[in-house]
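S-adenosylhomocysteine deaminase: structure tokens wanted.
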Amino acid sequence: MIMPGLVNGHCHGPMVLFRGLSDDLPLEKWLFEVMFPAEAKWITDETTHLGTLLAASEMLLAGVTCVQDSYFCMNGVARAYQEAGMRAVLGHAVIDFPAPGISDPSRKIKIVGDYVRAWQGVDPLITPALFAHSIYTCSPETLEAAAGLAQDAGCLWFTHLSETRAEVEQVREKYHLSPVRHLEKLGLLKSLSLGAHGVWLDKGELELLAENQVALVHCPESNLKLASGQARVGDWLSCGITAGLGTDGAASNNDLDMIGEIGTAARLAKLTHADPAALSAAQACGMAMNGSARAMGLGEVCGSLLPGYAADLVILDHKAPHLTPSHDPASTLAYQARRSDVRQVLVNGRQVVKDGEILTVDLPEVMAKVREMAQKVAKG
Ligand SMILES: [Zn+2]
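Answer:
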């Protein structure tokens, strides 16, 4: 079965370094008590490069040819995707407190601007962008500066949007508005390209997002694991929102398996809406292909098998017993396929996975280095 390469619409690649470090916690505790301190201690351009080589390998081997990845120390991330030969839209994060690579938050817009300009036009597969971490960790001034920089530099900007109920309550307490209406009041909704998660949104907010052409990226497995809630994806589609699908980072999922994510999205929507037709197999596959691509500004580049599109292709072994018989390729992919069925992968016409082996990364060496680092991280 030949299909378009899958497009991971929301990811934090280097977080594979913290995979399994802290499970079974709610988002606020997980993020502020474990992840932010671990990142402050361990994340540098060198470690994001290492982590991203592992993340890119995991994704390419699983048929993911393009990713929207947002993190800190993005020069290391961009170099790794370039070396792996994977298509990537890479948002440098901004946040109001000191972060890896940004010890002085007052310099964040300058640092991120330098990153964006350094990577523009360097590699046809790498698109720099900007990621305002969230409405609860970025002040109105930070959000305005981020959107202003995106406009000046001619890049896209993204954010985590209404991921948890606690986030929405916190923003309401501070600004007397929901995150979406707060962005609208600041005049920033029209320039925002992508909101990740979108779990706690009412009908009026969905209509506002559709009107302003803000895409949403669904991360069902991360939402399940952190108990963030169930996004009403059926409502996104009926409101005309561009809907993508993403894994989120490996510390909250804990894998970067888009075939698994398609299956989860298709099944979970039926439960969320109490309707088996809420999200069809074809719709879930579409979200993981051209839906995610459109959300990150690549809707006419990848995510579809059509003349004029880049040759980002995946070939699945169709002869496995669990794929037999196959009446409909979307149903086969959503409900039966496994990432281990992926055999060949091409990005922009270049073969990067051959017979289930990655050609562009020395994977045994990368895994050995990650294991070594994991031992140090575990010791604190
Ligand atoms: Zn995220």
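The chain has a mean pLDDT of 97. The first helix runs from residue 27 to 42.

Cheers.
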